[in-house]
Amino acid sequence: MWREGNRIHFQTSVVENNTPVVTGAYIDLKDVQIQVPKLNPCSAGEHLESDAVFKTIAEYVKTHPDQAKKINGIFLYIVTSKGETKAQWTLDLKKCEVYKGELKSGKADTTLTVEDADMVQIALGKLNPQVAFMKGKLKIKGNIMLTQKLKALMDANKSKL
User: Fold this and answer.
1) pLDDT for 133-158, tens place per residue?
2) CA dihedral sign of residues 142, 147, 153, 159
3) Rounded distance, CA 49 to CA 119, Å?
4) Which pLDDT tens digit goes with each residue over 89-114?
5) For the chain, what are the domain ranges?
6) Exposed, middle or buried: residue 49 (CB in 10 Å: 0-12, 13-18, 19+)?
7) Are 53 and 119 in contact (CB under 8 A)?
8) Domain 43-160 classified CATH 3.30.1050.10?
């Protein structure tokens, strides 16, 4: 079978013995319009693996506000994929809020930049955050010591991921 313009040429044969039954046949297609599907450039950013991590953290913070208040910090996570920023998550543990996007007001105590896949590995406990920092997989700006308090939050959610 092959196509020439709006005409498709084909040949059919018997499956059992491969004897041609119809040869030199063709079909003319009239008014055929091929539509190319439009891709949404934002769709890649909407389906990050790390979104599940942050949603789990958000649920934990809602149900355990006392644990969040112990950390008492504001963290801005910048999640990247192939070097491009794909999402931002704010962990405002002073107000016990976790949401996707930039800070609603004020300034983050700590800004963490991490690849999507690395964030998942850190949350699962397969990648030590300190090792990730030393290898350049996790970049931290601001109060680095405050990030040590996040370990308790990550450990509490490890079983839920």
Assistant:
1) 999 999 999 999 999 888 877 777 66
2) positive
3) 9
4) 999 999 999 999 999 988 999 999 99
5) 1-34, 43-160
6) middle
7) yes
8) yes
